[in-house]
Amino acid sequence: MDRAYDANHIHVLEGLEAVRMRPGMYIGSTGIRGLHHLLWEIIDNAVDEAVNGFAKGIEVVLNKDGSVSVIDDGRGIPVDNHPKLKIPGVQVVFTQLHAGGKFDIDSYNFSGGLHGVGASVVNALSRWLEVEIKRDGKLYRQRYESVYDKKLNKIISGMPVTPLEEVGGTSGTGTKITFLPDDRVFDDVKFNVDIISKRLRELSFLNKGIFIVLKDKRNDDDILEQKFIYDGGIADFVHYLNEDKNVIHNDIIYFEDQRDGIYLEVAFQYTDSYTENIFSYVNNIPTTEGGTHETGFKSALTKVFNDYARKLGLLKERDNNLTGEDVREGINAILSVKMHNVQFDGQTKTKLGNSEARSAVEGMVTDGLVHLMEDTTYDNTLKLIIDKAIKAAKVREAARRAKDVARKKSGLDSAPLVGKLASCTSRDPRINELFIVEGDSAGGSAKQGRERHFQAILPLRGKPLNAEKKRLDQVLANEEFRTIISALGTGIDEDFNIDNLKYDKVIILSDADQDGAHIRAILLTFFFRYMRELIARGHVYIGLPPLYKVQKGKKIEYAYDDGELKDKIKKVGKGYTIQRYKGLGEMNPEQLWETTMDPERRAILQVTIEDAAEADKLVTVLMGDRVEPRREYISRHANFNKVDTFQEMGV
Predict the structure, then answer these.
(1) How would you class 239 by CB atoms within 10 Å of its CB: exposed for 0-12, middle for 13-18, buried for 19 or more?
(2) What's the confidence (pLDDT) of residue 112?
């Protein structure tokens, strides 16, 4: 059929309409992550004032009506008229995309946020937003609303409903922004105080001396107030991350430097673990995929420690150099870079692309480490680090050989996978799903109930070991893990390549009991430590089988927790029977398909990493050697019969 296509079909989205039309382009999603992204944009603006020396304190308040306020004692948003637009500067900031003071270095040396779209995007996606500004001894206020226009039959976003008004006198300077997220845009508009608390703590670590207060006023009977200030900055951050780990030296190595417009802070400490954790930030933004700054740091660390080891005679002339993996085994490091003209790879700002950052960081880290090695007070610490690296080198070849085994199909696919992995017929990784299923019984039901075109089943015959406490060669010696590695096709650790992933979704399917929860925790620990990108790219899921079957005659309802059970009982009416599922093996193939595997009806929970540093700390608490922190955390948080347990636990 021919369809007319002319200029009338070209739609021009005016003002903030584009944000309303495609919110995911600006904040990632309309789920819980996108909701909090709104708040991060406003908080980042306040932090930028502090980072650049214009503010000392920030207050975040969760108000009873569901709105949130961010208050700072910075300079205050400009209130004079913009020379071209002839409206107040504050109105430009909140109503014009790509408008802000962060495009040159005169107003801000370093800044995060969305570079000019943050405040206006928040306004566009809010029911209302109100800004109060203290400048020049005066208090100003303006209000914006997103309202439905009957004539145009659409919502007009972020329109000023009052002029910028002078409402009184005041002392000091600063900005207060209060906004109510629009429930017509977001799936849920309730802010999570734990998510906010973690981000504010992180910002406080990254910007030493800034005083941040969080107040939750939503419950009259229990008003929560938390305060964050860390004069030690990222050194305190490393101490916080390592407080439940076994460190091999007590002092935290810290240094800072500035070169070619790039300011660097480094802090690190080694533990007795076998994995490395380097958490990097650029202008307070987590760069979870690393980038040029991490490359420079790693290069300097490897070179300087090798030179020092040879200088001390710990490495002989005939010995091979320590590799980067050897030198970084057990390191927990924070790398914070502040710079202007930041170039991130991709829209998510997770990888730094500036080439000049590599050479600058490598030079500064080299100088910092050399200076450290000239200080005799660190002699014992440095010897402990090098001794650990040399021991790592001794087991490296065994790990290399184990990796080679993992890469050889003849060594894995023909042995453990025979009769175990029920492959799918599709060869399109964009649609394929792999269910890692607890037990042969449940695996048998899953194999019979699946859609074999795109769903593969991998039953676990035994419980994998806890990867948190084992070296890589020990992990690769475990048959269950070798089977998973071979099935996924990505390789592991340094050899991991996401481009070789055979499945779009990797779904952990285990019983809703303590053993099932333990298996989930073990598998998530393995993925987090050795295939972290698998989680970061959103490929890991948790299947949520029902706990109850409520039946009355031919009418059947499934309930996933105790609260839902009450609703299902009301729905079927009197004369019902209840079956409590003790395990997946109790379900026949049809039941397993319709409750847990059918994409149209199942409930699965995507595992994400909102905060890699906090996730690392959580994995240490839950899977590490120390019992008391784990007991305390589980007693406070864990309820494995709740659908949202993993969200509450920060996974």
Answers:
(1) middle
(2) 58
